[in-house]
Amino acid sequence: MTTLVRNAWYVAAWSREVDDELRRFTILGDHILLYRRKDGTVAALEDRCPHRLLPLSKGKRIGDAVQCGYHGLTFGSDGKCTRVPGQDKIPPSAYVESYPIEERHGIVWIWMGERHRADPDAIFDLPQFTDPGWHAHHGDALHLKSNYLNVAENLVDPAHVSFVHPTTLGNSASENVPVHVSTEGETITAWRWIRDAEPIGFFKAFGGFEGNVDRWHYYHLHLPSIAVIDFGSADAADQIAEDDRDSGNRVLALHFMTPVDEGYTIDRWMHLRNTAVDTEEASDKIDAMFRIAFAEDKAILEAVHAEEQRPMKRRPIRIAIDRGPMVYRKRINDLLETERTLDASAETNASFVYHD
């Protein structure tokens, strides 16, 4: 049974990944053709000709249309067939699916589910994207041989950083600090503060902290697969309040997880920061540290996924830190159950009279 939620906006690509060329991307197991029209907007089509099934990405562009490289059937950027060489009549079934696309903040978003449910207002956003006091920087695309659920769970889990990232994003000072979890509202949040402790490697290199700091980790998980990690440090002598994080050295690490299929996820990551907003030198330094840390995550997650494919003699256990991931799994299951059925309950049926 699938774990892939279709009625959601996913990151199809960074804007820089899409140009005039015909390029194939795979999302939720579907092959998608992305390219830019002459006006600069992005077209997204099913990457399979309905005739002999050759991928359209192996064809060529004719203006904003795409010509199949096998027998020349041509499709507009809306997916409708405009030409069948050798005949005048175009069969009704000669079309390819097209997908709703929105492009914002250097990110190409795609809707993979029922078209009538695609609400652009539901696309993830943050005020810091356009706040002049913050700097936005796009990072890489991390390819993981792992189901996206495990990747997402890792990103609502502050406890793992002490052990997986001891020289970059964590250290031993946080090992026994309690993790707080809130599941109220649509976002699952886990967080903790580590007071008057040695700074982590990240903020020794970026921030220049030498003495003890107060530092925080807030992990926000937006269903189905977007994570925001709000982390930072401030001099311990300042004793900043929890709602005064902007006065410290603060970074928002964003993870946009796109399931390629059940066993493969692309995590496109970027960050927003409230310091060094006028220099890309800081961006390069942060990217280098993130690449080390995310490679550490990759090794763990791919090893976990490989073990999940092997026969199980007993069920895995859950411990206290797993509250957030457990709620996340339940909510994903609820979304999937909704997609498996058609809600016709609004239809009038005189056989049932409800009193609740």
Automatic annotation (TrEMBL):
Q: Name one Pfam family in it.
A: Rieske
UniProt KW keywords: 2Fe-2S, Iron, Iron-sulfur, Metal-binding, Methyltransferase, Oxidoreductase, Transferase
E.C. designation(s): 1.14.13.82
Gene3D superfamilies, alphabetically?
A: Naphthalene 1,2-dioxygenase Alpha Subunit, Chain A, domain 1 (3.90.380.10), Rieske [2Fe-2S] iron-sulphur domain (2.102.10.10)
Q: Name one GO biological process term.
A: methylation
Extract the coiled-coil ranges from the record. Answer: none
* Molecular functions per Gene Ontology: 2 iron, 2 sulfur cluster binding; metal ion binding; methyltransferase activity; vanillate monooxygenase activity
> By its UniProt entry, which PANTHER family does this protein fall under?
3-KETOSTEROID-9-ALPHA-MONOOXYGENASE, OXYGENASE COMPONENT (PTHR21266:SF60), IRON-SULFUR DOMAIN CONTAINING PROTEIN (PTHR21266)
Specify the protein name. Answer: Putative Vanillate O-demethylase oxygenase
